[in-house]
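User: structure tokens for this one?
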Amino acid sequence: MPESPSPHDPRNAALRIRRWFEPALLVVTVGALLVGGLAWAAGATSTADAAWMVGTAVAIVPALAWMIHALRRGRTGVDLIAVLSLGGTLAVHEYLAGSLVAVMLATGQALDSAAQHRASHDLRALLERAPRFAHRRTSGGLETVPVEQVHIGDVLQVNPGEVVPVDGLVRDGAAVLDEAVLTGEPTPVERAAEDPVRSGAVNAGSAFELRAGTSAAGSTYSGIVRLAQQASAERAPVVRLADRYATWFLPLAMLLAGAAWLITGTAVGAVSVLVVATPCPLLLAVPVAIVSGMSRASRIGVIIRDGAALENLGCASTAILDKTGTLTAGRPAVIEITTAPTNTPREVLRLAASLDQASPHVLAEAIVMHARRQNLALTEPREASEQPGRGMSGIVDGKRVEVGKLALPEEKPRWVSAALNRAVLDAAAIAWVSCEGDLQGAVLLRDPVRNDAPRTLKRLRRAGLHRLVMLTGDRAEPAREVATVLGLDWVHAERTPAGKVACVRDETTRATTIMVGDGVNDAPALAAATVGVAMGARGATASSEAADVVLTTDRLDRLADAMSIARRARGIAVQSAAIGMCLSIIAMGFAAFGRLPPAAGALLQEGIDITVITNALRALGRGRRDEPAVPPSTEDLLNHFASQQQKLRETLHLVRDTADLVSADPTSAKALTSLLQTREFLNRRLLPHEHAEEAQLYPALAGLLGSPDATATMSRMHAEIDRLSRRLGTHAEQAESHGHITSEQAQDLLATLYGLYAVLRLHFAQEEENYFALADPDRTP
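Assistant:
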């Protein structure tokens, strides 16, 4: 883990000094102003002047230091006006005005410090919660060791209330975790045995054992902490924008001050102009808005490295997105199981998953997870071995089973050719399954598009992005298919890391560009973009460290949220600066003609500063949401029906398999059996699910979306699914009465089956994009 900040670090010493100095400065300047006011009321004018002079003199010393610090950083203008106004009041003996300016500066600095303290609370909390020790299980029991001594493969015990020290897998049983620091979701989540767990989560249940998957330095939380340590409001480019404003604001103030001297015939008029020209709106309100926006983003699981990244994120017009792990889930999933005529999909899946339990390969993991979701009873394999590039081999139920890239016969059976054709059309990987040397089936796997990707990309366009580009090292065909589904403007496929950098640089020359990725090979491209955004929840540490923005939760929609926050914060920053300067210019005009004495001008400027700083703090708020806020009860319904629909999707292939059998030989017994199974699936599982959605989910969504008409299209889809299911049921009854599917039925039955399959696929996709993506999938009801 990153080391704790040293107490001897000069930066930390400066922070400690600032914590007490700014409140002390405010107390001294306010005290001097009040003492002077009381003395003036008692008739002791010389005492009053002395008190006000002390307050002014106390403030001018740090003001000079701020000016020198700004000059060293290449900033000029705004700090110079503050020093001139304080010095001017002392020179013309306008001590009350000087005291008011001093209070104004001290108040502004205190407000700025308080805003930064509040805005960086979430980032500091990451540092404070960083785990320092771990409980490692050894042959002699448990030993407590520094987290830096944890190695991959160590078995750790995480006690109740402790922070998970490193990334890993739950060893056995279940773990209940509070992931609020990582995701912003306050509801605990449950992780079963062999489920991955990220460091930084808090054990909200009983003690559990964790098998370390990374070292402390390579863990998720360590990467986030390193990023948090670098976050600073000092580098906000809108502050530089304030200095650009000052390039004309300073000459204007000096010109009006000179004009006031000529018009009024005294230096007091010039000092009055300088007093109301003190540029606290530029010095304070702008960075307060920027830091507040960074804080708001951190609360939803988006860590923004600095103010420069926030401003650029808020004005970007082009987004370049990696495919794998960004637009897609980043892990393969089983999409179909094709079998030989002598076998069934469930048996083929059981054999493959039983053997693949012994393999760490990502495809094997996907097959095992799919089998467990199907509640299949898996057998422990024996003599399991893996050949790189070929697959697994072992004994399952006393028979030799092989899974992977197997040799295919020269004369391929029809079902093998069909599986190969589907793999090409769906851009899927194939894991062939054989038993005792005979091919039994094929498992097709593909990296699916994220459910939240289509909706997120639409939100990004609404947020101001005009060009969406995919950048991937994958083949052109699967890349173009994903791009077509998501409506992207351009695709760069089969790119090496160097090629990705070249593409990003080319796009960046034309517009402010954000690059979103998650892999090690994305790190150079992230660094080349105007703003690099890393999917840090599962992404590589290298990509997170190269990025300007890190999404700490595995949700792409957080990028749209972050862009909305950045645009709002940037807009509030510019608005605060513009309002403050306009009001100051008006006041300077009155002062130039002698209508605003220094003391009154200082008091007026104090009000202006408080107004714009208060306005800047609005960036901490939520603002207007472009997505509806989902009530917990509706979110529970969404997650419930989304889970049911995922299980239905995994059985949906039965409809198309039946159509294929009918097309091959409608009168066969196997075609009739498959048709009856399809009818059973529709009547017992799918239609009750659709009817429950219509009765429970859609009324809740109508209230959420503001109109019953919002779900009208989906209700119409339900009606079409009902119609096609009844038609298929009628065909099944006729075929059952004849003992086979008749030739007269075949053509209409095929149309019904393929039509039903297409409608269901489209309906599921629409629900997942429009409705289920609104909910947090990690929420536990």
